[in-house]
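User: Predict Toll-like receptor 7 isoform X2's structure from this.
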Amino acid sequence: MFVGESSFFLKIVFWMMYITMHAAIIPSNFTTMSSNQSVVFRCCSVFTVNETLVANCSNLNWTFVDLQCVPVTTEVLLLDRNNLTTLTNGSFQTLTSLRQLSIQSSNVHRIEIDTFLGLSLLQTLNLENNKLSDIGNSFNPQTFRHFTNLRQLFIGNNQDISKSLRKAFIYLHNLSLLSMDSSATLHLGSEFSHLTQLNNLTLNCSIVTSITNESFVGLWSSKLAILNLISFNKLKYDPDDFDKETSQKQFSDDAFQNLNSLEVLRIINCRIGNKNMARKIKHFINSSLHILYLEATHYKRGFYTPNSTLEDGVIFKSTAKYLSQLTLTHVSWIDSNIFAIEPGVISSPQWRHNLRFADFSKNLMGWLGWRSPLLEASRLEKLEELTITAPSPESEVSYFYEGLDFYKRNVQPIGTTQTMKTYDSKDNNSRNNALFINATVSQMLSAKKSNDSEKIKSLKNEVASALESIPLSPITSYAELDSISEQSLFELSDNPPYPVDSGTWTVRMSHSLRIIKIMYLLHGDNNLGNQSVQFIQTPREAANVTHFYFVGNSVTRGTGRMMGLTNLQLFDISKNSLTVAPYFFDDFPSLRYLILQSMMNEDFFQRVSIDRIIQNMPELRYLDLTDNKLNFLPPNLFSRNSHITHVILAKNRFSSFPITMNLVPNLKTLDLSGNAIIYLTEEETSSLTKHSENVPDLYIVLAGNNIACVCSQIKFLLWLNISTFLDNKGAYSCTSQDGQLILTNVLWQDDLGFYRQCYGYNYFMISIVLLLVMSFTFLMAYLVHRFRTAIEAYLVRIFIKAVRPMKSSDYKTHVFIGYADEDVGFVRHILLSYLEEDLKVSTFVHHRDLGPGYTDQQMFESMSDSWRILLVITQRFLNNYDLSDIIMKYASHSMSPANEKRLVLLVQETQLYNIPGYLYDVLEDSRIIVFSDLSAHLDYVKRQAIKQCLRDTQ
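Assistant:
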């Protein structure tokens, strides 16, 4: 009953998102185009999607509906985010073929009675987020008499129109989905009996203060299957002043007694306490309800007290006596401060034979070491996923491809209001699922606009096809592996309730279990001893597990091996401080995806080399080593992994190309972003180019490396510009020879100028020499004989000066002083006093000597004209001074054999270890002078040290 309507609604959502994306990119001067191409009239974007004509008139700041730019055959019309204060009679009467109409967030205050005249075929109407109200007679109920075929109505987030709207139900016999606001006292009366086809109802309960046992009396004979109660902002209890009789008046335990046919129930942000909420579902025992979603049902945070929090956060058998008797296939109780669940609740007979998905994410069970729900997971015969996570942003599901920069750039996180999971095919047409799919489609369309869209799309499709069993929802399930002894829930002792001696943990799981995820859960449980983990491999157990996530847990040691996971496809142990034996990874023969992001212990890859980890994984396709401070890979890596297609090495410290390409003939994606690569050798670029000929969809990511735009690497820069398999189309930030940051593609916009800069002087000199040889050959003997002495002197002046050590007299200024603006007092009153008055040297100080014009250019010219460069390295210089990085890089590049001791550092003692490595590499220790107080005068030792470093200026 729900599948057909859900699919129809999802198509409409896709059309709406497709329209929205095209509205921003289609130029307004187009008039006609054919078939599936865009057609843009004077004001609206008009095009076809799946042979359906769509008009997008959103964001045009309209004050009235103007249909002269909308074709009469339009089937989908969007008027969102305009300023349509009043919808007048006959506004849409020419659009007799209209099926979908959306007027969201358009400041609509009033709808005249014949506004929708002629829309007899309309199936979906969205009037959410407007200013409709019962007080101002915003609309007459007869306004809806024209909707003889309306199936979906979204009219929530207005200003309480419940009275007028309910009188309109008499005209909406075919309505199957309704989203509306509720009154202060929630009451769905006899007027809902007119909605004979209604099966999905969402109520925005932001003003609800009371739910009685008669609140849903009008639905007792309806076919309603899905009920969503969301956004309770006023209905909340104070646990320290709790009175059962008062609570019954606010939210009666018999409130749901009239919902006989309900299959899906969601209650979100109803903070009446977990125990109180558990009592409300008693009437669903032996009913058709099979999906229950509870979110944020704990007491309001403002009323927190330690006793009430702990008491309400423990789910006992007595608390869940109704919950455990429901024949549920899906149960979610998230973000509700649940500390523990008593044994027997999860493994009740009803759940044991029916439960497929259980979600207790964003709760606190992992923080106290209580694992009773995890112990009972093996008893659930049909369990596919179990979710238990910590209440933090990090506990959201982190997909294995998250380390790729282009995924982060093009796919934004989905908001918490848009992430409700699709549990069942009958549930697909709910409002929250529509929002989730809406956001997903939006991301897909956004990705299509990027420069690398085709490569990203290809990779996404490949990943999706390989991992079809992973739902694309941030709310995914986890299962605990650790088998521990059961103890009393409130027994607190110095010994944790898990083994600490050497031994083997035998883990049994349900035969139906496919995905195990333990993420950010085990806090403080890091004294696990020398443990081995063994999954019992029988036809009914762990051999069916295909995906195993163990991410962000505080487990530091786990010796032994994991056995039984013979069909494991994906293994993610990122963000752990785990120490394992070399043979720990030997029993995953079917593994295709291995993720080792951000391992917390720095010696992880020193204890177990990467080639040892993957040597027994012949089917490996995807390896992610993001953020592990790696600077070297074994040259024979992947010699046993010829099927590898994706290697992610982002955010490491590689300064050279780390992979031998002939060992990876199927490699499609290599991510080297955020490393320390300055350039690639000609051999490396040639191997990549040759590989791209054999693998057409090759994609290399180099963003975030400090590319060097210098003349010695002109071939590499040309390769970046012409290679089509690079991210950003080869446009990278690079450092030029004079220390400036530019883009490689900007550099090649004036390729002839770059060639002239690199080779122009040499070619010019060669041309002059050839010209002189050709023109004055007959005079050379005479010139050599006659002007022999003058020629020798000239050559000495030209060439000898270039190789002899430079003197202070060869420069315009003796000392250039680089410092932060906040340190000018120290420079002016202490440092300059000593340099200029005592040592009698000339200095350049930017506060005093800068003239009008470009500041950066004057600074670089002054550094070039200075015999010594003295940098005052303080915390303010490193953190607050905009030019610090450029000045330090230019200073390091200015060192040459002709002036080897040009750079001197005057370093604040606290910043000694914060000096960039490229400065340390070119400095002797004697040229680093340490001081502790900027306000104190230079003592004798520091004065002599400075004088020694500047002695050639005397």
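Residues 1-6, 19-41, 395-503, 525-531 have pLDDT under 50 and may be disordered.
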